[in-house]
Design brief:
transmembrane helix; about 20% strand; transmembrane; six-stranded antiparallel beta sheet; alpha+beta; membrane; LptG/LptF_permease; 8 strands; two-stranded antiparallel sheet; cell membrane
Length: about 375
């Protein structure tokens, strides 16, 4: 028995072909609008043509393709399924004894291909490409990199708490530094410095420092003008921009979140660690969105309607836009602390699973 029939191959070819066509069409329009918007900045900042094409737009295309993959899936399913229904092809399939459940097989295979491809892109390929794109944006469009941060407090090791009033990456210096070491709840030592300069790896130089060691009722104080020391933190742990999570592969993103949680950090500067958690969960939730939206799209457009496929396409676009909007709104609840990042990211999928189940039950058989 063949795994795929001629009909399965036909639907898969139609699905993936329409999906790719919608990507090419919409992303091409997006690129034209983006060039029109940023042309003055390219010219004013003397951006090289090679960098514009290869560093920016060659990385712009996969980033936005993956970002709006759910929209492209929905458009593809709605468009070609409505066309099949309008041409009475689905009626012919169902009247020939094929169930709607069996009809969904090639749809699910196509959704699996898109889901796997999307996950590999978002987890391993797009993050390094984003670094190149964001570096270009910071240099030629608008610099969003972070060079200065205030009021840093973190646990860098068990019972070791670091505080710095501010750190400037341009001078590689921090001011009003404190490092407290605890044994349980008991303070064992306090290392203070007016200035702390980063050298390399974990090497720092403290200026105008003092060290207080508490030995029971006794206190030992030492001080000096300069001291080379090892502190297990680097500027990259302190300076975090809003785009940093986009530049991390999924394993690196997970490790970063765990490390920052161990350090007791809720945020670094103006960037919340919650934003990194949201990005992590989104990469997995988007895999399931391909299947959910495929079921909704196929169930909605499989029935032949009066007036052609325009109504189906309109409803499909409305649902896909509402899904993306729902994702954005629910993510804002996580940032504000109203919901956990996992719940905020997965709620749109949960709601749309219910919609998919209802539409599937009403699909023609």
């Amino acid at each position: 028995m063949k795994l795929l029939s001629i009909l399965d191959k036909y639907i898969i070819r139609k699905f993936l072909g329409t999906y790719i066509f919608s990507i090419v069409l919409i992303i091409s329009i997006a690129v034209v609008f983006d060039i029109n918007e940023k042309l003055d900045k390219f010219l004013n900042n003397n951006a090289p043509l090679k960098a514009i094409v290869f560093d920016y737009y060659m990385n712009f295309v996969p980033y936005y393709t993956n970002l709006f993959s759910a929209l492209f899936v929905f458009i593809a399913v709605i468009f070609f399924t409505s066309k099949l229904a309008d041409n009475s092809e689905i009626i012919a399939m169902l009247s020939n004894g094929m169930s709607f459940k069996r009809l969904m097989k090639p749809y699910m295979i196509s959704a699996s291909v898109i889901a796997i491809f999307s996950f590999i892109l978002s987890s391993f390929i797009i993050p390094p490409a984003n670094k190149t794109r964001i570096d270009f944006q910071n240099k030629y469009i608008k610099d969003k990199s972070v060079d200065y941060v205030r009021h840093i407090q973190m646990q860098i090791d068990k019972g070791v708490i670091l505080y710095m009033e501010s750190f400037d990456n341009r001078s590689r210096e921090g001011i009003n530094f404190a490092l407290d070491k605890f044994d349980g709840k008991e303070l064992k030592s306090r290392f203070l410095a007016k200035r702390l300069r980063y050298d390399s790896a974990y090497s720092w130089t403290a200026t105008n420092y003092s060290i207080r060691e508490f030995q029971g009722m006794k206190e030992v104080i030492s001080s000096g003008s300069s001291l080379d020391t090892v502190i297990t933190v680097t500027p990259s742990d302190i300076l975090v921009s809003v785009n940093d999570f986009e530049q991390m592969t999924t394993p690196k993103l997970y490790s970063y979140i765990q490390r920052q949680k161990e350090r007791g950090l809720a945020s670094v500067g103006e960037v919340s660690i919650t934003q990194f958690e949201i990005e992590f969960h989104k990469r997995f939730a988007s895999v399931f969105s391909a299947f959910i939206l495929t079921i909704i799209g196929a169930s909605l457009s499989a029935r032949k309607v009066k007036g052609g496929m325009g109504l189906n396409i309109g409803i499909g676009l409305g649902l896909s836009v509402s899904y993306i909007l729902f994702q954005t709104v629910s993510s804002s609840f996580a940032v504000s602390g109203t919901m956990t990042p996992m719940l905020a990211v997965w709620i749109p999928n949960i709601v749309f699973i219910a919609i998919a189940a209802y539409l599937y039950s009403k699909a023609p058989n």
